[in-house]
Design brief:
Elements (H helix, E strand, L loop, with lengths): L1 E4 L5 E5 L2 E6 L4 E4 L9 E6 L5 E5 L4 E4 L6 E4 L14 E6 L5 E5 L2 E5 L5 E5 L10 E6 L4 E6 L2 E6 L5 E4 L7
Antiparallel strand pairs: 1-2, 2-3, 3-4, 5-6, 6-7, 7-8, 9-10, 10-11, 11-12, 13-14, 14-15, 15-16
């Protein structure tokens, strides 16, 4: 389960039975019907445009417009290099420049804020592991990613990566 509070105070909760919005004053949760309810959602993000992004255990990435009226799904397609690296998505983050970072079990996908692919990273591009567990941007505009085999720093503007592992004292 994951909980998230938006900029305007809406509270969302994911569960194995779908996405719910908490209704203050009524002390109840309402199911958000614009996305499937049989999906295991792994993380939530509200982007700078107010859209809600949902990562999933095996069903790609969903976005919901700020009015909760329309949704869109992004899935991996092995014949299309501009899609996400995997349908198993672990975490999603928006950087200070507006780019959307999607951590998957097959590397990282970076999109601009209009969902246009910019860059993908996998082990063949220098990642120590394709399984990315979490991400966080620092005050110097570096996105830090934890993987199952080391820590990665990627400059947000240049998309240049540095890997930190056992050689740097990590165990």
């Amino acid at each position: 389960m994951s909980a998230y509070k938006t900029k305007n105070g809406r509270i969302f909760l994911t569960s194995p039975q779908g996405l719910y919005q908490f209704i203050p004053g009524h002390d109840k949760f309402l199911k958000v019907l614009v996305v499937p309810d049989s999906i295991f959602y792994t993380s939530i993000l509200e982007d700078k445009k107010g859209r809600i992004w949902l990562t999933t255990w095996r069903d790609g990435v969903y976005t919901i417009d700020s009015n909760l009226k329309k949704s869109r799904v992004f899935k991996h397609d092995s014949k299309d290099a501009t899609t996400i690296n995997s349908n198993r998505t672990n975490k999603i983050q928006q950087d200070s420049e507006g780019k959307i970072w999607i951590a998957t079990e097959n590397g990282l996908t970076i999109w601009d804020e209009n969902s246009t692919p910019i860059k993908s990273f996998t082990k063949s591009d220098g990642l120590p592991s394709n399984l990315i567990l979490s991400m966080q941007e620092d005050s110097n505009k570096n996105m830090w990613l934890s993987t199952t085999n080391g820590l990665i720093s990627i400059e947000v503007n240049k998309l240049v990566l540095s890997v930190y592992n056992k050689e740097f004292g990590l165990s």
